[in-house]
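Holo prediction. Input below; ligand is magnesium ion.
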Amino acid sequence: MLDALFKPRAVAIVGASTKELSIGNVIIRNLQEYGYKGAIYPINPTAPDVRGIKAYKSLSEVPGEVDLAHIIIPAKFVPQTIEECGRKGIKAVVINSAGFSEMGEEGKKLQEAFLANARRGGVRVFGPNCQGIINTDPALRAYCNFTFTYPEAGSVSVVALSGGVGALIMQALFDLGIGMRMYASNGNACDISIPEILRYWGDDEGTKAILLYTEGFSDPNEFLAVAREVARRKPVLAMKAGRTEQGAKAASSHTGSLAGVDIATELIFEKTGILSFTDEGAMVRAAKAFASQPVPAGNRVGIITNTGGPAVIATDVLVASGLDVPKLSDGSIARLKETLLPEAAIENPVDVVATAGGAHFRAALDVLLEEDGVDSIFMNFVTAPFTDTHAVAREIAAVSRMGKKPIVCNFMTDLTQERFRITERILKEGGVPCYANPSDAANALGALVRYGRLRQRDIGKPESLPGADAARARAVVGQAGKEGRTVLSATDVYTIFEAYGIPVAPWNVAGTADEAAAAAARIGYPVVVKADSEKIDHKSDMGGVVVNLRDAAAVRATVQDLQGRLGKHGRLNFLVQKFLPGGRELIVGASAERGLGHLVMFGLGGVYVEVLKDVVFKIAPVTRVEAREMLASLKAKALLDGVRGEKGVDREKVVDLILRVSALLADLPEIREMDLNPVMAFENAVYAVDGRIRI
Ligand code: ADP
Ligand code: MG
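Structure of the complex:
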């Protein structure tokens, strides 16, 4: 429970200062000016009072109970102070001071020291090196923070590791007139973590939506588990910075680097149903809609406009965000004809025309509310000076208050005019999310629809794989580990694949030309011969793959040639494999991510994988729904169905192969990197013809 932190009944400030421009003074001023309803206890060894409030020399002298203490003193005194907090029965501290783990070894030791004291004394730590929290609840008004924005009370809660971004988001909410519920910026986050805060707000009735800014996760698995549960109950809008590095990384060669460093966070958002944003402005504008509007049941939108052009822009943006602007039913059209002005355009968008008054708007709104084919309403409202704009606003506000279908409004006006400010206030009081242009309003509605879709998406559970021989695969990996090999041999790789029922082209490993010819005879011509050595990563780069060998003489000659050319790389074996021409070359890969398990990759494969870069990722374990999504989200997905008379591939067999790879990864966490490239996919079969595993 984080009540002591977010709902403190009394706050002590250790390091309270009489100097106006110091954190130990600003926090007290914020508590005073924001109207904190609890007791404030400045702690200062010399000053009799701070900002007119009686100060105490130490925590032990404070007469009343204290829930929360701010700590704003040099790092080296913090461990002892935390001990005093424990003795005083203080449940939580916000350590604003810096000088801990972010400062190297010595700071790290201090952090460990105060954490030990905190655990012993039952004190929860927020920070260190952080801003603090805000709770806008009118009954409390706890501004335990040193920032400068005084937010209005509302229903959006904000958590950001970075204080700078947290403050930016808070200010942006304020500028857009969006109320905030709680705020937390926890810096080093050595104890109270973002998942813990998410869980707390998940249970907080006053929080309707959560905004999250992060730069990564210290414990991705904990975050996955908590975020999934919270995002199911209320919208979590999130943004992760540091994307451009990923673009650069995507250019290099294997699964690990094709994934890049940051893709994992995006995948975590996707897996948990968190709504991800790349732009903090768009995220905050979307929050405005989430704060007051219900989540639409589907993606069909009805548009009401009193001006033509902006409805065209809105339609474009709405459609680009995945919304549908459907035709209205005959019944709706008949009703609109009865009630709207004769010059109105009765279709979707419904153009009520500029002279429309409150009653016309209301008639159109009522029709869309009752129209089964529409899930949400988009308003274009220009304040035509020859109309009663207040009356129009009152009708839109009344419909918004009903909460039947979500509504957003592109409100085009001049707010320097008193009259239109009143119109705006009427809309705001009705909870109508207003925006200054059609694109912003359409994108906000798009976010609501995207969240609705995320919430409905059920990825299901990972399936168990009957018949998988985990013990056999483990034995192979164990033996390689014992021998100090990190790159597995062809025999190892194909043995593991077979243990998991991953279909492979018939194969055999030979040491000599004679053995190779015998193997080829068993497999059946034509065959492929490949050089197999721990030292060779990309065989075809060095001429180590020779395809379409039709007889024993060709096999022998190839083996001798490979021995001659590549023998200098150390011991060489020869993989003899069935030649399977004419399939679509796909890639399935995996890489281990610290603290998260594996990422699974799927895409267009073959030797051009780095050029095409048409690959998608999921966090393992991958469910059947997710595997199907992987196929469906390739840029060149049409190739899987066949183009220009070519045959398509057996999609369900590809899905099945991805699930088998995922199951294999779950059983063998030792695998660092794995590539099946290519997987040859045909109309009714798939085969892995090349595999690489690094442990
Ligand atoms: P590497 O990736 O190490 O260069 P591969 O074994 O993937 O070597 O072979 C390179 C290419 O040769 C493949 O992308 C594929 O086009 C072709 N190839 C390899 N094995 C077969 C096979 N059994 N049947 C058909 N084509 C193959
Ligand atoms: Mg290959």
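Residues 505, 528, 530, 538-540, 545, 547, 577-581, 585, 606-607, 677-678, 689-690 surround adenosine-5'-diphosphate (ligand 1) (CB under 6 Å). That is the main takeaway for now.
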